[in-house]
Design goal:
The chain has 592 residues and is of the alpha+beta class. Helices cover 25% and strands 33% of the residues. Belongs to the TRAFAC class translation factor GTPase superfamily. Classic translation factor GTPase family. LepA subfamily.
């Protein structure tokens, strides 16, 4: 039997980082008796250790709450959590598409900030109803009036009468929030009699039960005995179990139009179903899938290598991580300098950092990661089809290349208008081309076309630095465009080090080469003899330095013949040690 949808509300909470999103979610679950005091803990929806450490959500979660209003009527409140970092922008858009409205939370001590504006725009693009909420009103530093003025700059409908004022930490105003969800957010309006149509907004893999998906049912009724089809890859499945989270998994015989729940598909291929897919009935399918589905593709690539003797442990750990993170892709790779490892594909630098920290926290593995890079499209002589290069070591020799192209993104930066000059200087220093400039209150939405390689390393952190933490960034893929890129090779003791091969713009390579040679002379472990470090571009040495010996070579002051040097290098070819500090230093190097 389909439910009466007028008693269902599907919503998300969106906020700038540290404005109290997780705390408000906790209070809603406690006030509706979704979790008992015994189960209660801070950041209930953030169960990954790295999520609680960074204060951002990486995996989307949802929980069903039962709210009994003052008249005694019970409502089903489905709270859908959303990822909270720029690398997960697509997942945020899909999670919001599964809702009918959002709570826009603003910290009264900090006011409207860039992520507030960015999240508001995402909810507007999705056509959602927005309830503005000012949080932390009991804090001594709170400036409620100024925060209210900032909200009205964002949207003139956010008047003092329409804005809720709460303290999620102490529970002040939570009852008003629950009533506002009932009264101001629209109920679902799907057709229970129509063919099944549900939106997948999260996936997870279990080695025993296969792919588990979270879905919002828009039309029709889903039952356990129904043969399903996932439309993006035309994958069929018979559900092993369906249910919803409270936040514990709770089995149910059916999910009907308006519901949010999970499906245990039994599918053993973790990449068969991805976020944004549409689920329907195999016997009576819907006419068309939901728009906006994208195949999740990595933005940057980096090598991941174990410490000595830990390759098997790393292989097992990476396989397990990849099962529950469809955006993380990998393949085996061997480096002469670093040995056996993997080439990983990531959504961005923060995603790479999350994978590194999960390997350490969940598997006890400290890994070495190389400099990230993007994919390059290279046209070579006497070959019709271009080459797609993900690893700089595969970059062709310069005398074979006719054209090099690199991928670009449209980078949308939201920031206070007072910081425009600093942000333009930063973006244009990264080869950004200004495409649009829009004013929203005292905030600006600045759109640049930029190479992925220029934002892959530290652009987000630099943006935070020049804007004092006030700016936010979202990116969407553009196309490939021609660039004057060259390959930079590093030799240590006249031996090429494949892990230190880079592709970068010609205008930047001289300064980068000078800096990296200097860093290597300081950080590469010393040996008994002096070791030269050379940076080579297109057959030319453009920078050179020396790694000093462990001790002065007084005892062996005689000159060494070229033959002896060659024999020494052959014997030590695989003995050059590259600690993680080398790669960390490269990442930290100034790119101005």
């Amino acid at each position: 039997m389909p439910k009466d949808q007028k008693f269902i509300r599907n919503f998300a909470i969106i906020a700038h980082i540290d404005h109290g999103k997780s705390t408000l979610a906790d209070r809603i679950m406690e006030t509706t008796n979704t979790v008992s005091n015994r189960e209660a803990s801070d950041q209930l929806l953030d169960d990954l250790a790295v999520e609680q450490m960074h204060g951002v959500t990486v995996k989307s979660r949802t929980v069903r709450n039962y709210y009994v209003d003052p008249e005694g009527q019970e409502f089903e409140y489905n709270l859908i959590d959303t990822p909270g970092h720029v690398d997960f922008n697509y997942e945020v858009s899909r999670s919001l598409s599964a809702t009918d409205g959002v709570l826009l939370l603003v910290d009264a001590t900090k006011g409207v900030q860039a992520q507030t504006v960015a999240n508001y725009r995402l909810s507007q693009d999705a056509g959602l109803t927005v309830i503005p909420i000012i949080n932390k009103i009991d804090n001594k530093m709170a400036d409620v009036d100024s925060t209210q003025a900032g909200l009205m700059d964002l949207d003139e409908r956010f008047t003092p009468e329409n804005t809720l004022r709460i303290s999620a930490k102490t529970g002040i105003g939570i009852d008003d929030v629950l009533l506002a969800i009932r009264d101001r957010l629209p109920a679902p309006s799907g057709e229970p009699e129509a063919p099944l149509k549900g939106l997948i907004f999260d996936t997870k893999f279990d080695p025993y039960q296969g792919v588990m998906v979270q879905a919002r049912i828009f039309d029709g009724i889903l039952t356990k005995n129904m043969a399903l089809n996932f439309m993006a890859n035309d994958v069929s499945a018979q559900p092993k179990e369906i249910g919803f989270y409270t936040p514990l998994a709770t089995e149910t015989p059916e999910l009907s139009a308006g519901d949010v729940g999970y499906i245990l598909t039994g599918i053993k291929d973790p990449r068969a179903i991805q976020v944004g897919d549409t689920v329907t009935s195999k016997q009576n399918p819907t006419d068309a899938p939901f728009p906006g589905y994208q195949q999740i593709e990595p933005m940057v690539y980096a090598g991941i290598y174990p410490h000595e003797g830990e390759y098997k442990e790393l292989k097992i750990a990476i396989e397990k991580l990849a099962l529950n993170d469809a955006a993380f892709q990998y393949e085996p790779e061997q480096s002469e300098a670093l040995g056996m490892g993997f080439r990983g594909g990531f959504l961005g630098i923060f995603h790479l950092q999350i994978i590194r920290e999960r390997l350490q926290a969940e598997f006890g593995l400290d890994v070495l990661t190389t400099m990230p890079n993007s994919t390059y499209r290279v046209t070579v002589k006497n070959q019709d089809k271009p080459l797609y290069i993900e690893n700089p070591t595969q970059f062709p020799d310069y005398n074979m290349i006719t054209k090099v192209e690199e991928p670009y993104v449209r980078a949308k930066i939201t920031a206070p208008d007072s910081q425009l000059n600093d942000i333009m200087r930063l973006a244009e220093g990264r080869r950004g081309v200004l495409q649009d400039l829009e004013t929203i209150g005292d905030m600006l939405l600045i759109t640049y076309k930029m190479p992925i390689s220029e934002i892959a390393y530290d652009f987000f952190n630099e943006l935070k630095s020049v804007s004092h933490g006030f700016a936010t960034l979202s990116t969407e893929r553009d196309d490939y465009d021609e660039s004057d890129l060259v390959r930079l090779d590093i030799q240590i003791d006249y031996t090429p080090v494949d892990a230190l091969t880079f592709v970068m713009h010609r205008l930047r390579v001289d300064q980068f080469a000078q800096e990296i040679v200097q860093k290597l002379t300081e950080l590469v472990p010393r040996k008994l003899q002096q070791m030269p470090v050379q940076a080579i571009v297109e057959g030319r040495v453009i920078s050179r330095g020396n790694i000093p010996p462990l001790r002065k070579a007084a005892a062996s002051s005689g000159k060494t013949s070229k033959k002896q040097q060659q024999m020494r290098r052959q014997g030590q070819k695989n003995q050059i040690e590259l600690p993680q500090s080398v790669f960390d230093a490269i990442l930290d190097m100034s790119r101005h």
